[in-house]
What does this fold into?
Amino acid sequence: MTEPMTGTAAPRDNTAPAGDPPGRLPGASRENAVLRQVRDHGVYVAIGVLLLFNLLFTPNFATVGNLRLQLVQVVPVAIVALGMALVVATEGIDLSVGSVMAITAAIIPLYLGYGPWVAVGVGIAAGVVVGAFNGTMVAVFGIQPIIATLGVLVAGRALALVLADGRLVEIFDPSLQSLGNGTLGGVPVTVLIVAALAAVVGVAVRWSIFGRRLVAVGGNRTAARLAGLPVRRTLLVVYVASGALAALAGVVNTARLGASDPSFVGLLIELSAITAVVVGGTPLSGGRIRVVGTLLGALLMQLIAATVIQHDLPDSVARMIQAAIIVVAVYVQRDRGGA
Amino acid sequence: MTTLSTAGRGRRQVTPEALAAFARRAGAPLVLVLVLVVGTAAFGGSFAGPQNLRNVALDSSYLVLIAIGMTFVIVSGGIDLSVGSVFALSGVLTAYAAQWGSAAAIALPLAVCGVIGLLNGLLIGRARIAPFIVTLATLLFARGLAFAASQEGNKVYLIPHDLVLTDVGQARLLGLSTPVFVAAVAFAVGLVVLNRTRFGQAVYAIGGSPESAELMGLPVARVRVVVYVLSALLAAVAGILVAAQTSSGLPTIGEGRELEAIAAVVIGGTLLSGGIGTLTGTLAGALLLKVIQNLINQVGTLSSYYQQVVSGVFLLLVVLIQTGLSRRSAEGEA
Amino acid sequence: MNGSDGGPTLEVAGVTKHFDGVQALDGVSLQLRAGRVHALVGENGAGKSTLVKIMTGVHRPDDGEVRSRGAPVDFGAPRDAQAAGISTIYQELNLVGTMSVARNLFLGREPLTRARLIDPTAMNREARVVLSRYGVDVDVRRPLAGFSTGVQQMVAVARAVSTEAQVVIMDEPTSSLEPREVDRLAEVIELLRADGVAVLYVTHKLDEVFRLCQDVTVLRDGRRVFGSQVADTDRLGLVATMLGRRVEDVRAHGVTSFGDADTPAPADHDRDLVPVLRADDLSRRGVLDGVSVAVHRGEVVGLAGLLGSGRTETARAMFGADPLDGGTVAVDGEPQGRRWSPGRAIARGVGLVSEDRKAEGIVPDLSVRDNIVLAALPRLARAGFVSRSRCDAVVDTFVRRLRIKISGPDQRVRELSGGNQQKVLLARMLCLSPRVLLLDEPTRGIDVGAKAEIQALIDELAGNGLGVVLISSELEELVEGATRVFVLRDGAVVGSLAGDAISEHRIMTTIAAAAREDGEDGDGAAPPAVADPEVAG
It folds into this structure.
């Protein structure tokens, strides 16, 4: 009878969860649940608190005019944040969004001669091209997203300045005017755009194949690949989407201002977008995405800025508050191994 | 006892793995030499003459200081986005505290920035939050602090002329300014610390394999804290020096310095994933960036925007090559 | 250097530990005494590694105590255990691959010059000396990752032993060692014993238990089910205890749940059929060297070999997961071109369940449902939108069929036990109705019950016509489950066994014989240190 139990190579005894930091007790289920609630819904609470504060202490806060103003101002960040959320869900990041906005802003005046919609089209196409570039770097060449998009951030802004010769250009076009400042049924057009985009993204993420692939690629890229998912294609799409949305934000911005200002448009917007995404409950480690949360995160940042301005608090304070909020938001996320 | 000789067994010592290592170690210095030669050939004295070279050296010294700290951080597997803001904050605080003398002008920024570095370190090392996000937050916070300290950028503190700080800060030896010497000393010290101390080995280990480092008994959390404090302090020193040089503290400087430092480190052959990198490479990378910027200036007709375009493209190229080589070598080893 | 009063140098008492609702250890007690080697034995998932991690400060017990020389201790981190004189060689070889051999050996205790700086010359020199005592002669300045797993393991051993510890814990230390290296290790352990060191030897290879150890403790499903001196124990009894079965049953039916103990011979008609999946001359620089493997419908083909022999790489290449420098893969006789990929493989009816379910298998934050249907999304969708009802139907079918224990299809898959996670991954491939499945260590790290279920399932599937390529480091699984076994070594096929010729002894001899043919061993060594039990009785 052959002798059993003398195997050669030894199997592992994998009873502990991976990534379990040595020396730390894994959270009991109860603690997980509480933290999960805070992470998922903390942004609602924060917004609620700020709204309450402003209703009580800020004069003229609850007027239609002011509320409309807040919503309109949040539009560019919200659009960029939607794209950023898609990228972050794949465990990536897109630092180039501000520069894409600048490129688009620089392109519009150049093509305005062919008609406003052509100019807009070319602007968005530029965003798509940059996004495709980013996506190729990340998906095909395997470069880390932070570095790839960092390079584009630097080169892109400069490119925009070269295109516009560094100058601010004023734009007088009725179509763009109505796009940027018009209303439809009392609601600003730009806000409607955001709402529509959010609906599309939300539906896609939850119910489409692409959405399932997105969270799988972000949750465990290797597993996704071995399950036959088109990982490269998914990543490419995500970065293209981010580029296109950033370009759209550039269009909206230009339309609203009535001017193209490549030196300042989109400056540091990547920080605001990332903050909105993180605060809204989408973890940097990928694998999950919260569309509504992202919008609310953007709104929260806007409210903070507005509160600060209305109460004559200095801009520096706004930054410090924003910083503190980011830290709290990620601190709460960290239990899940937030990247 | 029979002997296991594995000299020929398993991996050969040629091709992708060795090539990648060589490119990492020698790439930046080689390209630097190449660029210097080309620059001299193209522009002669206006580039290679002592005046211009001194300027390049001075310009580079701030970047070198910051990049030294960034090297430690990245080798340990992290990243520090806050150095640009810390740099600016330090400059403002230096100028502000100068009213109380040179000692205060140096002590205050070091103390405050040290605390900020400590904050980074604790949140990253102990609370284990992602370095990217933590230092992003610190970036905002430090910048905000810099503006708050300078009354929203409306007040630019000027350093009085008769201080030791400005005397030493603006001094020259052999035509080279003080910051150059400070950077050189920092480089030498950093070299020793990273390569010849247990702390330095721990930094490499934590970046190479954090779980293993922990299991091998290294004080992982503590090393991480120290590394971020170091980064902040070096940025602070750079800020003190620039304030001394310009006799003023502007809260708006430093925008993009962190990206520049990261670029210098990456171009110098350090892997963003951690565990591999050298200070010599970083030095070469930093000098390379500044020399290229200088060369573009020499051309004169190109707008300065092209500097940035070139820098960005250059960074991407380097990373592409590095990634390509290391991927090929990793597959070979698998 | 004995325990001061003859009491145990290190002891755990009544230790209990949970992870996310899974009970890993339940009231386990064990004592390590100076100068004695204590074997810790058990199946995968029994709790051995968890116990080691508690003793070494990686985890804290939920209940119970750890005592060092009689006094209760609370290790918060591995440093604390090391400070208490406990040195560990982990199974996962926790070393830093990017750093040199010498640096790894001395990390944290590098030799210093008078100026309190590291002395690299001294360090390299001492490293060479230390390693030569282990029969390892390599360039200690090169990165560790460039060396074979065997060398890396010896470096880990050398490091653990050189710390003048009083307790040395070895977790499956021979998983990638050659017989000579195992002999070397045995000599080292003797030296440790003579020095009064207490050794904990975690293994599931009973030969080593009887050769090297004085005490033995058996764990099963997190509990201590047996503890005694080795001299008072017999092999078969030990096996039966580990499995929780009666000795007679084990003797009669074998150790696994694969059909009968008699290995089924490959059916004759298989010879004429075209293999459902076939690999010809697969090559990849440094990894695969002309590997050819074929599997027919209804056949279970085993891939045997040491760690690093290329089994996983072969399976991955057959699935299209890795690029090839040369060779072809053919499905049902049709060669698939250079663009072979997991997506195409799945479309052609080939499935793969990877060996590392955590890193390459489950998407931890997604639900059980999402994980199961992951590979089948295109088939369950209409116009780009996933049909929830179709998904639910599929999930329901397989949860029942594989008896996956979940609280509901929405449960996050990271909360499941290892065995249930493995079943989810199997379901993911099975719901595609594949014609051939590549299974890489499908029963690794899971509890005894789930293991038996999966083994029986593989049997059933093969019986229904599925072709199976089975990679397992537990030879009894190959012996009892496979109709043909290919033996791999250093990326090449060095032997092939079929039917009754498949035995553990023959597999091990094939591996060892290939080593000698390579001419590595120049001392005319005697036959490998594995006795043929059939001869020895």
About this structure: Chain C touches chain B through 50 residues (CB under 8 Å). The radius of gyration of chain C is 24 Å. The mean pLDDT of chain C is 85.
